[in-house]
Amino acid sequence: MKDHQLRALLQVAEQGSIRGASRELHLSQSALTKALRELEADLGAELLVRSYKGVEFTPAGQALLIRARLALATLDKARDEVRWLCGDTSIKVTVGVTPTIAATALPRVLNEFDRAHPDAALTLVEGMLTNVMPGLLEGRIDFAIVAVEPDQLPYEIVFEPLARILAEPAARIGHPLLKANTWSQMAEARWVLSLGTGSLAQQLLVWLEEQGIILSRQVVKCDSPTLMTELMRRTDLVGFGPRILFEDPLSGAGLAHFESLPAFPSITLGMLKLRGVPLNSGAQRLATLFSRHIKPLSL
Description:
The chain is of the alpha/beta class. The protein has twelve helices and twelve strands.
């Protein structure tokens, strides 16, 4: 497998056609088709099929796409690292960050990182687990700071715990269930939750089921923290998340705690990285800063 063959494959996937991929790569359609055929011959497998619907990937093609994205992202990071070692300071770093950190440690981390790497190109991705996992597995995200259940993570992901924090439900000020003192009373609430594997909400549901409590009303599924918070503020939907986020005067504005409920077990906030893939110098520096400023948040 060669670099240009894999890039041709990825462009076909992103553009949805041979014509679009060839235009993006500034190649003739015949040259791009030749690269794909050579790749198929090297692997001994058909990777894509052209039909009146466009280009469709075979199971073998789908499997290769996932690995190809990671391989090319790793090579691009290696090029950036070499350029940085040779004096080019414009290194690229992409990080997934949970809103909890955005409201606490992130400003201090960014101030210190900017002083050390003023020319770095930094990209921040909203750090819900469902958002960051594909990016980590494909190499588009260097690392992520999230609250997660480590046992539910795939083998390819390494988890470094940084802090134990509290999680709790929250709702709009004046919500009729705010005086609830048992979790069984909360079963009648209408919830808005992010239910990805390993998420806080998934941990909540498992914990409730262990106590024989099943939510009786349909859950509104939402993977956007901003949208979730606005729904909690403006409707009777009940959300669930880190206490430190709901206590923040800005992100927690208009929200109230369920003061009388028994406490939910503390959760782990930590760093996710791809197993066996080293961070570039800029990403490693940023990861160190996150670790330093997050650990004091622990209970």
